[in-house]
Amino acid sequence: MTVRAVTLHVNGETRTFDIRPETPLLYILRNDFGLNGPKYGCGLGECGACAVLVDGRAVRSCVLKAGAAEGRRVVTLEGLGTPEAPHPVQAAFIESQAAQCGYCMNGMIIAAAGLLNRDPHPDEAAIRKALSHHLCRCGTHMEILAAVRRAAD
Ligand code: FES
To answer: What is the pLDDT along the chain (153 residues), one digit of tens a residue?
Structure first.
């Protein structure tokens, strides 16, 4: 494909880039918007570290073409809340001290926020399903589950 203008709406900011539309959205978020919430883990849609919300649903930005995000509302970890007013999921992860190395936190928090967008009071099975394809190499899964339960209360 050739280069063309691609307009993206990210965290309330609208910017246009002359890019190949098949460029992974993750690259534009990190390299052009300067957002480091979404992480590069596997680059294959397998680990979940790069997750962002697109129209309120969690998606993996390493396998989403930037051109496919045009006209949609993209929210990254930075756009969920602020240090002064964190999103309920962010607050619950802090209160539950769910992070160890922190690399998976972006994906876990975005997945939980996406889950609560569609189901404000998910049961245990729904929480586990929403997080099941997000890898955590530290093994802090119990604290993560506790944080999502807290956010869903
Ligand atoms: Fe996107 Fe692993 S970096 S799923």
So the answer is: 699 999 999 999 999 999 999 999 999 999 999 999 999 999 999 999 999 999 999 999 999 999 999 999 999 999 999 999 999 999 999 999 999 999 999 999 999 999 999 999 999 999 999 999 999 999 899 999 999 999 998
The answer to whether ipTM exceeds 0.95 is yes
* CB environment 89-110: b (16+ within 10 A), e (fewer): bbebbeebebbeeebbbbbbbb
Q: In whole angstroms, what is the distance from residue 115 CA to residue 53 CA?
A: 10
Closest-lying ligand 1 atom to the alpha carbon of residue 43: 3
Identify the structural domains of the chain with CATH numbers, from first to last.
4-79 (3.10.20.30), 80-152 (1.10.150.120)
Assigned token pair, 47: 């680990």
**Ligand 1: nearest atom to the Cα of 45:** 4
Nearest-CA residue for atom 4 of ligand 1: 45
